[in-house]
């Protein structure tokens, strides 16, 4: 996705601070930071470390200085993930609403399986998907040919690794074989970013049962 080193949420935060994340992944991280405060301190500490490192770098002459400064000052301001957005709150974080242009009540869902709806777009080589999973619904067991990042927006799902609730990020790659199950009290609404297709696993009977729902 970005490198082979994004295998934890902490690594994801480090790449976010470094500004090295592709846009779909950056949006997912900003949504995470809006929903949960757990990683605010980590992000600020990493930003401080990055600032200190910049101060230690030897000064160098910048080619076309005036042209570069003009480009910087004319560019739009970066989104502020840690700052509450103006306007009425919704299920979707402000960063997500800005990116897709609607809240949960405006999603043009498509039914993919019984009890499973999805809205998916391709962005810069990534599959950026919103998912709605019926309470108690199991998704087919699968592993990954690349990286899958899933952010829970509302509700929760569980797999063999534990429970993922609002604001939690599931980081999964080819080493993870899981079968997410939405909790029974409410639908699970999630945002997923994939850089390669998934691969179904499990027995034929289990796959068939999960597809039927």
Structural summary, described in words:
- This protein is of the alpha+beta class.
- The protein folds into two domains: 9-98, Arc Repressor Mutant, subunit A (Orthogonal Bundle), CATH 1.10.10; 100-212, Jelly Rolls (Sandwich), CATH 2.60.120.10.
- The protein is 31% helix and 24% strand.
- It has helices at residues 9-18, 23-35, 40-56, 65-74, 94-100, 204-212; strands at 110-113, 116-123, 126-133, 142-144, 148-154, 157-159, 162-164, 169-172, 181-182, 188-194, 198-200.
- The strands form three sheets. It has a six-stranded antiparallel β-sheet with strand order 1-2-3-10-5-8, covered by helices on one side.
- Helix 1 packs across helix 3 and helix 2 runs antiparallel to helix 5.
- The longest helix is centred in the first third of the chain and has 17 residues, at 40-56.
- It is elongated, with a radius of gyration of 19 Å.
- The two termini are 31 Å apart.
Strand order of the largest sheet: 1-2-3-10-5-8
What is the overall pLDDT average? Answer: 85
Q: How would you describe the shape?
A: elongated
CATH third-level topology of the largest domain? Jelly Rolls
Number of domains: 2
Q: Which bin fits the share of residues in helices?
A: 25-40%
Low-confidence stretches: 79-88
Oligomer: single chain
Label this structure with key terms.
Arc Repressor Mutant, subunit A, six-stranded antiparallel sheet, 2 domains, 24% strand, three-stranded antiparallel sheet, Jelly Rolls, 6 helices, 213 residues, alpha+beta
